[in-house]
Write a structure and sequence with these properties.
The protein is an alpha+beta fold. The chain has one domain: Roll (Ubiquitin-like (UB roll)). It has a five-stranded mixed β-sheet with strand order 2-1-7-4-5. The protein has a two-stranded antiparallel sheet with strand order 3-6. GO terms for molecular function: nucleotide binding. Pfam families: ThiS. One of its GO terms (cellular component) is molybdopterin adenylyltransferase complex.
């Protein structure tokens, strides 16, 4: 399967866990968004809290919040991990 790349943006807890604010990530072509979390966790084995963070986060693709995790990533997209914001 052909490898393509996406840009992943990390904010808040996701940035803290990975130590990154952005990275280029090679993905298999036509990757469902639902599978991206597994790929990111595998890329960052030392980020022990990343799975929990991703499970509680929302995603945006090309600056549009995405609810449907069956959305297919074809390569070239900018995907942001939108962590929940706490406040009071």
């Amino acid at each position: 399967m052909t490898q393509v790349e996406i840009n992943v943006l990390y904010f808040a807890a996701a940035s803290t866990a990975t130590g990154l604010s952005r990275e280029r990530v090679p993905i298999p072509q036509n990757l469902p968004l639902a599978e991206l979390g597994d790929l990111l966790v595998a890329r960052h084995p030392k980020a022990t809290t990343l799975r929990k963070i991703l499970d509680g986060s929302k995603w945006s693709v090309d600056a549009e919040e995405v609810e449907d995790l069956e959305t297919v990533l074809k390569g070239g997209e900018e995907v942001a991990v939108l962590c929940p914001v706490s406040g009071g």
